UniProtKB/TrEMBL annotation:
PANTHER family: GLYPICAN (PTHR10822), GLYPICAN-1 (PTHR10822:SF8). This is Glypican-1. GO terms for molecular function: fibroblast growth factor binding. Cell surface proteoglycan. Residues 1-20 form the signal peptide. Keywords: Cell membrane, Disulfide bond, Glycoprotein, GPI-anchor, Heparan sulfate, Lipoprotein, Membrane, Proteoglycan, Secreted, Signal. Residues 475-526 are annotated as: Disordered. GO terms for cellular component: cell surface; extracellular region; plasma membrane; side of membrane; synapse. It is found in: Cell membrane; Secreted, Extracellular space. It holds the Pfam family Glypican.
Length: 551
């Protein structure tokens, strides 16, 4: 009889299928049957005890409690559950950003409403006919201010200039109602009167301060909405086939293996989730820029731009301007008559109401600076906490949702059995997944939905960067090939076609194109041109390929 070497028998024993920790006796599948039924699946065909696992395509092919159908059902379930985890995490961030937007929007709208109401309450008794015959001029101003704040495509400086021009025309007519003043005469009057500052320094001062405050407030409010929308869209991105297999192996294969009570190894979980969320992690850089930009503008709103004082006292500045005109009425009228000639006497005569009697008055403004300070403080705390959201998401999901073991645990599920997990943890982002041992990731095919959202973050960050220095930026949704350089050389017809302000400080908003999938845009707060998304992709692929060849 031929005797086989001891090494041969040891090899046979070592290569025999393992049964977890149960030795040679087939283990009961009661735990898996209970779990499977709880997930809503029929128990028909589910083994009572372990069976051979040669049929398995995802889980290790040792003894198992899962049939092919069970493995497929668990895979689909793991996919839906992981996507639900992503959406739940995203909803938490969305809720935070939406709440911040709602708080600031409510504060700002209330500030504007109170100013308008104060004007309507005080001006009738202060100015009488000067106000009652010009109510629409004031209403139109506040309407334009609201339209701008809500992102309508209007030029704020133009709107303010138009208000002062219309107000000057109406008041000049009322203050000189004994004359017949034509539209042509009013055009001449405006040209001559503006040289002598009939409203004093109020129009110029208010334009500078209100423009900066409104630009900052509008961009700030939009920033929260853009951030929330990006999270929503990214959270809806479906998992790849390779990711689904990896998630199944992580979450349900231990149950099939008879190791239901064994938690996944922490580093094993991190590699799986980092591989699945490789594209999402690439949002990190631009996301941090957006959070930092929002914090920067928040400091401006509660600091140099003094939104509470500027917006809350618009009615007071208008009253001051009207009082200046009343005081300088005779001088302004004389100079206009010298430059435009004496108008004809009106046959209707002047109104019996004395339009000069009102004089200077004092209005009070209730400060809400403390409320703004608290809003900004709360927002900055939340924004700081959200900075690292995309790169801390894998560890958050592993610890709170997947319930992975501690990093030092060497008796955890490592994808094959209970033991330690040896591979190193991959870095963040798509490029770092080239050697991911758990998820096969094609680093040459970035997710286009996420690339589009990265571009939206860049555009919004650029807008906030401009708002931080008092510059306005209008974005036109267009498929034209525009440079997006921020030079302001190109502007929409509905803006350029309007009458330009006579003030040398007036500037047109910078105009940028919102890019399509491979369009152009701006990066950060700078005004440089960006290469197309396809060019960026080609360059990144070339760099990654070169690094791989040198390994």
């Amino acid at each position: 009889m031929r005797v086989f070497p001891w090494g041969f028998w040891l090899l046979c024993v070592a290569s025999a299928p393992s049964r977890g920790d149960s030795g040679s006796k087939a283990r009961s599948c009661a735990e898996v049957r209970q779990l499977y039924g709880a997930k809503g699946f029929s128990l028909s065909g589910v083994p009572q005890a372990e069976i051979s696992g040669e049929h398995l395509r995802i889980c290790p092919q040792g003894y198992t409690c899962c049939t092919s159908e069970m493995e497929e059902n668990f895979a689909n379930k793991s996919r839906s559950e992981f996507e639900a985890m992503m959406k739940e995490a995203g909803r938490s961030v969305q809720a935070t950003l939406t709440a911040q937007h709602r708080s600031f929007d409510s504060y700002f709208q209330d500030l504007l409403n109170k100013s308008e109401k104060a004007l309507y309450d005080a001006f009738p008794s202060m100015y009488g006919e000067l106000y009652t015959q010009n109510v629409k001029v004031f209403k139109d101003l506040y309407s334009e201010l609201r339209r701008y704040y809500r992102s309508s495509n209007i030029n704020l400086e133009e709107a303010l200039n138009e208000f002062w021009t219309r107000l000057l025309e109406r008041l000049f007519k009322l203050l000189n109602s004994q004359y017949h003043i034509t539209d042509e005469y009013l055009d001449c009057m405006v040209k001559h009167a503006e040289q002598h500052k009939p409203f004093g320094e109020v129009p110029r001062d208010l334009k500078v301060k209100a423009t900066r405050a409104f630009i900052a407030a509008r961009s700030y409010a939009q920033g929260f909405l853009v951030g929330s929308d990006v999270v929503k869209k990214v959270s809806q991105v479906s998992l790849s086939h390779e990711c689904t297999r990896a998630i199944m192996k992580l979450m349900y294969c231990p149950h099939c293996r008879g190791l239901a009570s064994v938690k996944p190894c922490n580093n094993y979980c991190l590699n799986v989730v980092k591989g699945c969320l490789a594209n999402q992690a690439d949002l990190n850089t631009e996301w941090k820029y957006l959070m930092d930009s929002l914090i920067g503008v928040a400091d401006r709103i509660d600091g140099p731009y003094n939104v509470d004082t500027v917006i809350g006292t618009i009615h007071m500045r208008i009253a001051e301007a009207i009082s200046n005109l009343q005081e300088n009425r005779d001088s302004i009228t004389s100079k206009v008559f010298q430059g435009c000639g004496n108008p004809k006497i009106s046959t209707k005569g002047s109104s019996s109401e004395d339009k000069k009697r009102r004089g200077k008055v004092t209005l009070e403004a209730k400060s809400s600076a403390q409320a703004l300070e608290m809003l900004v403080l709360d927002a900055k705390g939340n924004l700081t906490a959200l900075k690292t959201y995309w790169i801390t998401l894998p560890s958050s999901l592993c610890s709170k949702k997947v319930m992975a073991s501690s990093a030092s645990d060497d008796r955890c599920w490592n994808g094959m059995t209970k033991g330690s997990y040896l591979p190193e943890v991959m870095g963040d982002g798509l490029a770092n997944q080239i050697n991911n041992p758990e998820v096969e990731v094609d680093i040459t095919k970035p997710d286009m939905t996420i690339r589009q959202q990265i571009m939206q973050l860049k555009i919004m960050t650029n807008r906030l960067g401009n708002a931080n220095i008092g510059n306005d930026v209008d974005f036109q949704d267009t498929s034209d090939d525009m440079s997006g350089s921020g030079s302001g050389d190109s502007c929409p017809d509905d803006v350029c076609g309007k009458r330009l302000s006579k003030s040398p400080s007036t500037r047109q908003p910078e105009t940028h194109a919102i890019p399509k999938q491979s369009g152009h845009g701006v990066n950060g707060a700078s005004s440089r041109s960006l290469p197309s998304a396809s060019l960026l992709l080609l360059v990144s692929v070339a760099v990654i390929a070169t690094q791989h060849l040198w390994r």
